[in-house]
Amino acid sequence: MQLRQIELFALRMRLRHPFETSFGREEDREFLLVRADAGDHVGWGEVTVSRDPFYCYETVETAESVLRNYLIPWTLSAPLAHPDDLAARLHQVRGHQMAKAGLEGALWDLYAKEQGIPLYQALGGERREIEVGISIGIEPTVDLLLAQVERFLGDGYRRIKIKIKPGKDYVPLRAVRDRFGDIPMMADANSAYSLSDIGLLQQLDELGLMMIEQPLSYEDIIDHATLAPQLKTPICLDECIHSPEDARKAIEIGAAGVLNIKIGRLGGLSASRKTHDIAQAAGIPVWCGGMLESGVGRLHNVAITTLGGFTLPGDTAASSRYWEEDIIDPEVEVTPHGTIVVPQGPGIGHAVREDMVRRLAHGHWTYRA
Ligand SMILES: [Mg+2]
């Protein structure tokens, strides 16, 4: 790949509905887009950071800084044969996985377009259609939660994930179970509990959840291994897994029965694929988590989900779940039977609406090779 220039865009997009988790409420989504230009082809990647350092330490500002001062200049310093080679070049920068992932994602899209193949094929995926679920934030009342669940089941989503926090856990989940019966349902705690809450977490066992996601600290792996044998509900790890190595260690000590793969958190598609391979070899199912992505990040999620070990529906909903108008054409749509048909065009497979990106951008930087 012979890059001519890389552009960075800072965007702010209004969510259709505010989204609340155990660490806060988002009404606008702020993130960065990367455009990698090689002359004949252009690739797009999304930096799935947020404005605030609540899900992880990275923010729009930290990602912008590290991309502009290190990652983009180093990427442009010499040609790259393959996107898999980028991580080694950026290795000296510790952490900043989301910043790295957005840049690497643009190179993956570009690489697939240069090869004339869809991104999912470049990654070695095979599925033509992926099963998808929905993630529902913490609703102010049980009635509002039930209305949301009813709506998304009607839309065909294959799995309902509900965000929980202390005081908003057993009661709302029980209400959903009672109303909708044996639907595939899981809970995401976003690190809101500790080992002293074990009685409460055991109470959730009677709800027959598919899994509980990241009940304990965002930095912990060890305590999750202590908790796992005391629960019937499988534990899925999200926040504390930043690399394929973290995944290997978590699996080895029995901390994870399931893994949530987020491309941004893991530092890119190459690391996500490695993490998938490690989990698959160990018989641990994986699914693709979401960060309220725009269409660009959403299509990267669709592509990685085509790998064989993604046996559980992920968070990759339709564009219209989050946006009045997405920045891709066509938008990502979910079929009435809860699937997304994988695009077969080169790269991410849908056009990026560059006019809209440039109009929405409140920051724009260009770097030439
Ligand atoms: Mg999560």
SSE arrangement:
Layout: E1 5-21, E2 24-37, E3 42-47, H1 60-76, H2 86-89, H3 97-115, H4 119-122, E4 129-131, E5 134-136, H5 142-154, E6 160-163, H6 170-180, E7 185-188, H7 198-203, E8 212-213, H8 222-227, E9 235-237, H9 244-252, E10 258-261, H10 263-266, H11 269-282, E11 286-288, H12 295-304, H13 319-322, E12 328-329, E13 339-341, E14 351-352, H14 354-360, E15 361-368
Parallel strand pairs: 5-6, 6-7, 7-8, 8-9, 9-10, 10-11
Antiparallel strand pairs: 1-2, 1-15, 2-3, 4-13, 12-14
The structure holds magnesium ion.
Magnesium ion binds next to loops.
Structure overview:
- With 369 residues, the protein is an alpha/beta fold.
- It has two domains: 5-116 and 353-368, Enolase-like, domain 1 (2-Layer Sandwich); 122-341, Enolase-like C-terminal domain (TIM Barrel), CATH 3.20.20.120.
- The chain contains 14 helices and 15 strands.
- It has helices spanning 60-76, 86-89, 97-115, 119-122, 142-154, 170-180, 198-203, 222-227, 244-252, 263-266, 269-282, 295-304, 319-322, 354-360, and strands spanning 5-21, 24-37, 42-47, 129-131, 134-136, 160-163, 185-188, 212-213, 235-237, 258-261, 286-288, 328-329, 339-341, 351-352, 361-368.
- A seven-stranded parallel β-sheet has the order 5-6-7-8-9-10-11. A four-stranded antiparallel β-sheet has the order 3-2-1-15, sandwiched between helices.
- Helix 9 (244-252) links the parallel strand 9 and strand 10 (258-261).
- Helix 1 (60-76) packs across helix 3 (97-115), helix 5 crosses helix 6 and helix 9 (244-252) runs parallel beside helix 11.
- The radius of gyration is 20 Å and the shape is globular.
- The model has no long low-confidence stretch (mean pLDDT 96).
- The structure holds magnesium ion.
